[in-house]
Each structure stands twice: as C-alpha cells, then as structure tokens.
## 1
Amino acid sequence: MPNTLYRALPATENLLTQLHTAHAALCAGLPRPMLRELVNAFLQEKRCLIKEGCITDPAILGATALLPGLVTFVGQHGMPHFRRVLNATGVVIHTNLGRSLLAPEAAKAAAEAAAWYSNLEFNLHTGARGSRYSHVEELLCSLTGAEAALVVNNNAAAVFLMLDTLCKGKEVIVSRGELVEIGGSFRIPEVMEKSGCTLHEVGATNRTHVADYERAITERTAAIMKVHTSNFRISGFVKQVPGSELVALAHQHGLPALEDLGSGSLVNWQRAGVPGLLHEPTVQETVAAGLDAVSFSGDKVLGGPQAGIIVGSKETIGKMQKNPMNRALRIDKMTLAALEATLRLYTDPELALTRIPTLRMLHAGADAMRRHAVRLQKRVVKAFAAAGISASVVLRAGESRVGGGAFPECDLPTTLVRVEGIEAEALREALLRLPLPMVGRVEDDAFCLDPRTLQEGEDALAAGCLVEAVGGI
Ligand SMILES: *Cc1c(COP(=O)(O)O)cnc(C)c1O
C-alpha cells in the first residue's frame, strides 16, 4: 500500500512548474532553486505522513490536490527571514525591533545611495579624491556648535575610537557610578578596555567628587571620561561631577575630557513641551561645556540611521581621523546618506519634530494618543464584527516607554487598546506567526496595542493582523 501512495506523489519538477503557472505572484520573489527546495521539503513532509500511516488515500496526493497546501507552505516558509513587523509595544526606540525609523527623506537618500554611483569619496570641485566625512561634518558642527566632527559605524565604535586614539596603553579616569551595562550584555567598561587602555575607577557608586578625579591623576593618565548613565538612574544621595568641572580639571593637567553621551539629543525636550520627559543634557550643552570629544548614537533619540557620531575640538577629532582603526569602523554610504538627510531636517527644529518618526512619536501628547487609540479601537471593532469575532475592544490609560536606554523612569502617557475575551498569551503567539507579525504587550491578562508606535497606515494593518491571528488560534 505505501508504495502506491509514494508513487501517487508528483515529481518535484512537475509540482514546481504547476505552482509557477498557477501562482506566479507568489513565486515572483523566490529564485527557482529556493522554490525547488521548498517543494522538496513539502513533498518530504507528505512522505513522512505516509510512512506514519496518516495518509491512506492516494487521491489527495495528486498535484492538483496538493497545490493549495503547497501555496500555504511556500507562503510560510518562503518569506525572507529579516522582515517588517508592526510595533504595537509603545516602546519608541525598540532595540529588538530596529530602534529608530528613518524620516522619508532619509530613507529616500539611503535608497539612492544604494542604487546609484555617488560622490562618496569624490570632490566635485576638483575632480579628485574627496573625503566621505565631508558630507556631514559641516552640518554636525553647525548643529552642535563643535569645531569638528567624525562619524563611525555606531556609538560603541565611537567610544572605542576615542579611547584607542587618545588613551591606548594609558589610563582613563571614570566614575564608578557611570560604568554602565546596556542591552545585550554590552558593557561600556569592556569596550573601553578592549581599546587597550586601563580604567581607573573613582568615587563610590552613588557619589563622585572632583577631588576623587584629581587624586587619581598621575603621569599614566591619558584622559578623564564621563559616561552618560542612559538606561538607569541612581536616586537619593547621589552626586556626579558636571562636565564643565571635569573639563576645567582635565585642562589644568593638560588632559582631554571626553564624554559618551549615549543617546545624544539635539532637542531640548523640556522646551519642546514633552510632558514627562526629564531634562537630559543636549549635545549642544555638552559641547558648550568644553568637552574635547563627545560621542552619541545616530539611531537612538536622534532618530537617524545606526551610526556613532563624535563631535569636539579640531585637534582631538583630527587625531581620531588619522587613526588607522577608523577604517575598520567606518560608516557606509547608505548610512551616510540617511544621516545627512536626517541632520538637514534638524536645521529647522519644527520640521525635525514632524518628519523624524522617533521625535514625532516621543512628542505625541496624551490627547493625540487618546484620539489615535479611539481611531484604532473603531477599526478593530469593525474588523472583528465583519469577521464574526466576539471580543471586546476597550480603551485604558497606560504608559509608553522611550526605550533605547534613554530617559529611564520617564514614561509617556498613552491610551492602550485592549482585546478582552481572547486568551492573551495565545493571541500574542499567533500574532508573531503571521506573514506580517505584530508585537504588542500583555497587561492584566489582555493583549494590548499601544498606538504610539503604529505608523500612519498601520492601524488598518494592525486590525487585519488581529483578525488573522484570532482566526488561527
Ligand atoms: C547605547 C549606548 C552605547 C552604544 O551605542 P550604539 O550606537 O548602540 O553602539 C554606548 N554608550 C551608552 C551610554 C549608550 O547608552
């Protein structure tokens, strides 16, 4: 009997051709060898079922009968591994979901840089070789007030480059209260030590004084460094030394003062009237305090592409530019294009707030969030009704988070859309298995969507995802 069943299965090539003919659109993005692998895997699954005695009817093994199942199989397994998801978590700078979204201007610039030749390292005035850094240096200087600027792959690379250039084989003095670990067990002190310098930790976890730094200065000292404690807050009896005082001390001893700002904001959020956001030092303020080099991320609060930006004095930045390690850490052309486009938006703060998604999401107030939640609720209610799903969709006050290790303890008021009457864990898991997966959160036994991180046009997609997921539970 099984032999007859095995023989009833179509040949791979035959099934592949039928799939191609009947479902051209499905096959369009899949190279034929990948498709053949999928068809093979699908047929192998059938052979296993035959072997286990789960299939006994040869009629369901013909090519025509198998085709609908194959379409589903290809739909599920043929998708690119790296793909779009809907972020309904309300965490704006979600490290696991890609941190910052680019402004349309920046996405367009990145796509152009990718598809066409450019003046990446070509000087259009002289027709000779140019510098890839020239495209953003002037903008960074005028936005931050710094004399010079340099961009690398990310902020971890920026910290490494600062220390490798200025402190290799010597000591850098850092406050114990600032030796932070950020996501993915990435520890600032470990990166610092990889650059070949020794950390000289001073002060206590909660308090460090200027005198602590001063006592630590020896002939082995190469720099004094401040690290912004971006993802945690020690509160209570605390003291960290302001940048300006460290600058005075460092310069008195002929040393550079460096700062890793982490997130690095160009916007004063208190002045921008964002409720709940504490004042974090802006890059401009840090530069004005006289730091010789300040580093920050391009894709945290700045809302640009992944990059590490270093601004500071001509002398200090110049040394880093000449460091051969710079080549290994260099920024690529798509990133550079996206960064320039993002920085151009910052020349008009109003424009930056409306065009840069990260800023727009952080800036949305409680009223705007409530209106968005009402619109989303209506869509979901309508979609559920049309699909005959009985679940209640209700609104409840909640909180969104900035994420990305920025503004800890500083939640943004939002309105959550709760799906009640459907097992929350099952819904959460079903949503992850969709072709367009959606990530939300479970609060008080209900699956919740925070509209803050859903972009324009995504409410309809989110409602569709919910319907599809509920149907699959
Ligand atoms: C996030 C962060 C980094 C690392 O920045 P990446 O751009 O992710 O490499 C370094 N230092 C601090 C303080 C940070 O918050």
## 2
Amino acid sequence: MELSYILNELAEERDDYFRAIAPPIVQTSNFAFKTVDQMRKAFEDEYSTWLYSRGLNPTVEILRKKLAALDKSEDCLVFNSGAAAIFAAVLANVKSGDHILSVKNPYTWAKKMFEEILPRFQVSHTYIDGTDLDNFKNGIQANTSVIYLESPNSWTYELQDLEGVAALAKANGIITIIDNSHCTPLYQQPFAMGIDLVLQSATKYISGHSDVVAGVLSGSKSMIERIFNSEYMNIGSGIQPFNAWLLIRGLRTLDARLERIERTMLQVLPFLQNHPRIDRVIYPLDPSFPQYTLAKKQMSGAGGLLTFSIMAKECHTIETFCNSLKHVLMAVSWGGHESLIIPKCAGMKPENFDAANPEHRLLRFYVGLESADYLIQDLEQAFLAIHHLS
Ligand SMILES: *Cc1c(COP(=O)(O)O)cnc(C)c1O
C-alpha cells in the first residue's frame, strides 16, 4: 500500500459523512441497537462491533487502520499513552514465574514496570547489552517469555540486530516486543524482520505538534484481538476520539515533517561535529556511529534526535549553555514542531556532576521544524555564552 494512500485516504469512508475531507470526531460513549439480537451479537464480539467507546469507536477506527497499514501489521490498538501500550503488550505476555529479557536502559516506564510492578507478581527480568547478539543467546532462561527491545535505545542509540534476535526468540518460543518510537514505521519495519509486537509513542512523530499523548501497539490479528478483549478493555486506556482525530491530522504531514527534519539534520549535524567545544556527537546514521553498518541495514532514516557532549569541567558551563538558548526549548519529549534540548545533568544534583564521566556531559538534542540556520545561530550564540567558561 502506498504511503500517500495510507495518510490521505485509507479507511476514510467519506460517503458516510457528507463527503467531508476531515473525518468526524465521533464523540460518543455508547452506541444504540435496533434489536435485542443485534445487541446480543455485540456482547458476544465487542472486537467487531460499535458498543461502547472504551472498546471500538469510529474515529479511532480510521486511525487504527492507518497505523496498522504503516506498520504493515494485521491490526493495532491505540492507547492514551505510549506507556499504556508498553504496559498492555508486556502484561499480555507474562504470567507468574516468567522472566523478561530486556535491553538495558529501556524507556523509563518500561523499566519501572519491570522493576517495581512485575516483581510483585513473580515476574523477573534481566538487562543485557543488546548490541551483542550473544548476550541474548546467553540471557535466555527456561522461563523467558518476553524479549523486550528498543532500537535505537534512548540517549546513546544502541541498536539490536532485530533479525537475529527475532530468529533466536522464535526458535525458543519467546515473544519479541520492540519500542519503535525512535524510527516510526517510516524508518524501521520490525515486522518484516520477524518481531512479534511493535509499539511506539504516538506522542512523538505521529502527533508531531506536541499536543497529544498517545501510544500504538501493532501485531497479528490474533494477538491484537486477545489483547483487545483483555488488557486493552481492562486497563481502559484507549485513546479518546478527539485525540485520535488529532493523530489522523498529524499523520497527514508525517512524511513531509520527517523529510524536512532529515534535511535540517544534515546541516545541523556537521555544525555540531565541527564545533571546537563538542567532543562527541552520536547519530545512528552517521559513519562515526559504532553500529553504523547495522543502522544502515535496518533503518532507512534516523529522524531528529542526536546526542552530543560539551567539553566542560563544571556543571555550571553546561547549565549556562542551555540557559542561554533563545529558541531551542528545554523540555522532555520530542517529535513535535519545536526543537528541544535536555542536558543529562538536569537529572542529577550539581555536586554529583563528574566532568571525567562522559555520560554526565551529554545533551540530547531534538531537531524540529525550524530552519537549520535559525537553529545553528541559536546554538552558536549559546556557545559564545560559555566561551570564557571551562
Ligand atoms: C516518550 C516515549 C515513550 C512513552 O510514551 P508516552 O506517550 O509518553 O507514554 C516510550 N518509549 C520511548 C522511546 C519514548 O520516547
């Protein structure tokens, strides 16, 4: 299916709503039946009937069809957050006594689920360095039921060999789940590489305007139907119609926005790489990236995230740099129209800052939709502000 068709036409039955270009927001909690028999059928199979909007909703349905098509999956569910998608995907595939093998440093709330919630139900986990396939081989236990992946990973963008991990998991009857937020289905297609469940935070590129929190979980029809009838309905965190409508709107420009971001990145990246105050820039599709060959093999783009480190002896220097930015905003999240920065040192007390630890000097930078010159000028004047600081 062509990308243009998915973003502009798929699932939009305009004859059903006055030939309107923009789909209606079907803001209803429930749906009426004409006969008892129709109602009975809906009770028997809520996965295929309008009954109650915690289950299916027509606006959400349009979005689901588009997002599943983007992932090249049979079906998907859209949640009120990426965290809810993670929760449902994992919960649906573990039982008491099971073990999860996860890449180290998965997204914060995946980590909290593994470390704080699941141990209460006797589900254990191990973290491994996912850059080496052997670590997966060696990490599998008799009770491993889920392998949890995030490729590229947060901050330093470590990759996992998705085909290798998928084959290994299949041979051992283990379900693979990947957080694909970084690439979106436009730049990485985990199903084609054999992964079972693919999720992403739609808060990021799908929304694209920093005005919705949402998550997507894609998989086979049987897996998605099972999760719909259980975790999805029970957690009750499906996306609301208005937010689904905003995501449909975000999808219209997904391709165009990513293209623009990549173009800007090609100008911002060399500026940072050549800057005398920067000693390291991490971007998966740059030849300097340690797993560049794998990145080129399994990703067709790397989007707007990069990480760099400033040469600084004091935490204050990094703080001054960030505080001096006039246009790049300091905030969590990414994928919106606005460029953003987070210094690693914001997550620690200044007295614990150790300039000898390269991790402490990292800054994660997200390139948004502003022009490259506008961003470079802003970065340059912030570098000038720390010119005299060590
Ligand atoms: C933001 C994010 C999430 C969580 O998504 P929410 O929509 O904020 O719940 C999960 N994984 C990654 C990699 C993210 O960046």
## 3
Amino acid sequence: MGNEPHYVWIWLALVKLGCTASLLNNNIRSKSLLHCFSCCEAKVLVAGADLQAAVEEVLPALKQQGIRVFILTEDCSVEGIESLCDKIQQASDQPLSPQLSANIDIKSPALYIFTSGTSGLPKAAIVSHEKLWMTSFVLSLVGVRSDDIIYIYLPLYHGGGFLMGLCGAIEKGITVVLRRKFSASQFWNDCRKYNVTIIQYIGEIMRYLCNTPKRDNDRDHKVRLALGNGIRADTWAEFLQRFGDIHICECYGSTEGNIGFINYVGKIGAVGKEHFIHKMGYSYALIRYDPEKEEPVKDSRGFCIRVPRGETGLLVSKIGERTPFSGYAKNEQQTEKKRLRNVFVKGDLYFNSGDLLKIDNEGFVFFQDRVGDTFRCIDKTT
Ligand SMILES: *[C@@H]1O[C@H](CO)[C@@H](O)[C@H](O)[C@H]1NC(C)=O
C-alpha cells in the first residue's frame, strides 16, 4: 500500500488482532516483492487497489504457498484475490476478544521494516513493540505540542515516516497531513493549505526544496520544526535563509539500531548532541577503525580502542536489556554481522552501527562516513 488513510486503519486493526505487519515497499515488483513477502514468513497479503496488477503478477507463486490475498476494493473478480473494503463495511464493531493478542508482550515483533544494503537483497529489521513505543516519543523530546500538525510524505514503509512520523503523531494525538508522494512544487502549497507546523525530511528533499525557483511567498507558512536526517551544512544554511526561521532538528539513528542522537539545539552540521538520557542506561563508544582492513583496530590484548574526543571512530553500542538489538527476520547471518563481541572485555556484546562519527568537546555528534556493507536507506523513488 502506498501512503493512504487505509494504511493507518489496517495497521491499527492488525495490531489489535495481535498480528505482526511487514511493511512492503509499494514500488517493488515480481522477484523482489516475493522475496520481501516471504522472508518474514507472512501468511496474508493486503494490497492497495492501485496495486492489483503487481499482485496478479506474483499470484501464482502466492497461491502455491497458500497465501491469502486481499485487495482494498469493494469487489474483485480475479480468482485468488479477495476484496476487503466490503468486508470491512460488514464487520462487527464489537470489541475483539483480548485472547487474540494475549501472547503479545513488549518484546514481541510489532513490525518488519526493510532496510537495504549495498549488496544483496533487502533485510527485514525486526521492530519490537518496545522499539516502536520508544521511537514514538521522539516528537515529544523535540518539543512537538498537541496543537501541532505534521506533514507526512515520506513513505510509510520506512522508519522515518512510520515510526517517527505516524507513531509519534498517534502518541501525541496530533493531526497528520498524509501525502501519497513528495512533490517539490506542491510542498509549500500543502503546508499553507493545511496549516502544517512540523515537517520531516531526508537530506535530498531539503536540497530539492532549495532548488525550486524562488517565490515571493517562500516564507509564508506556519512550519516551525523540521525533523530528519542527512541535511548537508550548506543546504541547511540556504534552507533557513530562504524559508525562514524553522528549527531544524537533525537526528541520527537507524531502524534496527539500539542508539540514536538528536541535535535538539539546531547546531548546523551536527547530527546530534549527547544528552543526559544517554548517560542513563546507554553505553556507546567510538572505537578506532582501520578503513584499509575494514575492521576495528585492536590493542595488544585484542580489545578495541576508544578514540579521544574530537577524533573519528566507529560507533558501537552495547546490547543489553534496555538497549536491545532485535536483528533481521530469518537472517541470522546478517544479524550476526551487526554484532561485535569482546569489544572492551571478554564476552561483551555491541551493536556495530557501521557509521564513523566524531563527538566534540561540547558533545555535538558529527557524521563522518559509512563503512562496510551498510548504508542509510534512502528511498530513491521519493
Ligand atoms: C488554517 O488556519 C486558518 C487560520 O487559523 C483557518 O482559517 C483555516 O481554516 C485553517 N485551515 C485548515 C485546513 O484547517
């Protein structure tokens, strides 16, 4: 499904039933679609009305696996695809039996969200209810108020739009303006029309907005906060100069990672600032990394070496009860690749972010480079 209201209702309904939802990219087709669908061992496919042709293409394979297929239409004449909208209309509004979700707890998987690597097929990051719940507080942390209106155009099948945007909005109880797809020419018109106060971004989007022809009404809007990641320092300055006094809140984190930073003070160029919350229960470090050998540098005893403040190092974050790493669905090999053992003492266990960062004396965090197989998942189709 693309970004549409049904996406939200269906997901909420699935959670109520105790189902785990695997959020598929609505642009993938045939082999990739089947791979992503199957790698979480999904049993049911629900598709938007506009995706019927894509579903029909993989229908024989789905039939073979005994998958039930629903499409969001009033009726459907294709054998093997059932319409869903008519059934929603007829469904009872009585409360569901709590028995249905009795086996779900905070550690249970709530979602699978796909992340890509530079090599190989997409991997499904397991997002537990705990992670979903914690991410939903980011909006509060950055000062979103109950009268704010958030504009969501980032795809709901990624963590940015779904976890931070949608779940954050649900947690705050704020109004969501949901757009199917990013449009540089319509962006500010939408913001004006719907009184948007909060926007989300990824680096390229901010550049696209700065590249649109200048207009007299560039500063005529109510947007006060932009939340996202990957904006370059030069774009950042240009954006503020052109579109006015918008607080840009650059964030660092990943769907599967167990550590995040927020640049809540708006210092240009930083992806985050260390916060007292980080001292409570989080244990992370920047360790020396050898880019030639593509591995951490070890000391004479075979342990990793913390870099001094102000120097670049690989971010690793201890895996523990409060900072879990759930890994990838049915993919122990990729999960293990993100685990680093015997980092500072024998037997310890860390999450390897694959990101080289620098933290200065004031605690500002700067992104430097990405190493190995990982890269930030930015959807080119937006
Ligand atoms: C936006 O705000 C203005 C002024 O407060 C109000 O008149 C208008 O109805 C609002 N628009 C929407 C779509 O809510």
